[in-house]
Amino acid sequence: MKERKTIPMAVRYLMNIILVAAFLTALNLLVVNKTLSTYNAKVLMLVGVNVILAVSLNVATGYLGQLPLGHAGFMAVGAYASAIFTKNFDGRLPDEVNFVLGLVLAAVLAFGVGVLIGIPALRLQGDYLAILTLGFGEIIRITLNNIDNVLGFKLTYGAAGLKNIPKYTSVLNAFVWVAVCCYVIHTMMKSRHGRAILAIRENEIAADSCGIQTTYYKVLGFAVSAAFAGVAGGLYAGYLGVLNPGNFGFMKSIEILVMVVLGGMGSMLGSVLSATVLTVLPEALRSFSEYRMVVYALALVLMMIFKPSGLLGQYDFSLSRLVEKLINGELFQKKSKTEKEGE
Questions:
Q1: Is the pLDDT of residue 334 over 70?
Q2: CA distances (Å), 208 to each of 122, 217, 305, in order?
Q3: What pTM, to 2 d.p., does this model score?
């Protein structure tokens, strides 16, 4: 029997690094050469933010198997933490350092809040967890609206909005953080920690009986999901330049959840594709101003009727796996076998 050829792990990582670097370089050239208009660049920034939100929520829903509805709350924590930090240190630190530190602070605070919420919340399941996390999201929004009255000084500026936030977010750094988010989550899910999280999704009682610390891994998955939602919030703050608590209401959480469900719960590539499509589609339909939301909603309904498992189900694309199949001739063998069965 012919020995199957495999690609060493170091080569796999090198292939992915080259592919990501080529994509980011091409994207940067399009922006620098002004091939992309300012409007298209802003849409791409929003795509990057939504991809991070969808991929991060997929950890809690698709991989962990829970149903949180407070993802916009974590996004709000990150957005305001990053915005307040970068606004106060604008001019005192180099822009790049200020921006990165703001996003790191956003991730750390959102992670901490995720742990605090996750410990009591993840004792519940299904509808009960959804209601609790929904309440948490609303608590965050109301707190941001009224905390200035409690503190006695201006911090979030309440419903008036936090203005004059430095607009550090660009197409390039947004997609750099998309790459970081996807890499960290992918490597985590391929590790023993990720396998423990998947085991809990499949059967929590069986996982517990095998010695997996279910509470620890459920909180870990929930907190990592929250941390990257905080990063997305920081990028969103740097994109808009102004924040209002109303931007992080219940419908924002539902919008993120729709992206995950539409792409396929448990598929990172599906989350990336659906977040891209659902961000670009409303913008592409602006010429049909009166009917664009009808078309948008109809597309979602049709998708759920004809492909209820989402665009990709639980499938995830792997470049190294595809190259291995090409090297071993398995890709074409599978195709010819299918054709023979069809005949």
A1: no
A2: 15, 11, 36
A3: 0.88
